[in-house]
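Incident log, entry 3
Record: LysR substrate-binding domain-containing protein (68 residues)
Problem: checksum mismatch between cached and fresh output.
Input:
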Amino acid sequence: MEQYTFEEFNTCAANGDLIVARTFGTDIHPMIRTIPVEWNVTIGYGLFYPINPSEAVRLFVDAMTAVR
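Fresh output:
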């Protein structure tokens, strides 16, 4: 899973940018303020894995496929 880095938060703070993300901690960066929102929005999620995954990954994907 890709994660935000401190460098990305620094860039956001320096440029006055906005990051829209799932809720995470409130003390992420000293120059960034978090504001929770309640929007009627859904976000699709998915799994990314190699074409030829390891046995453990293949079993996990099979299990996830079975419950969807």
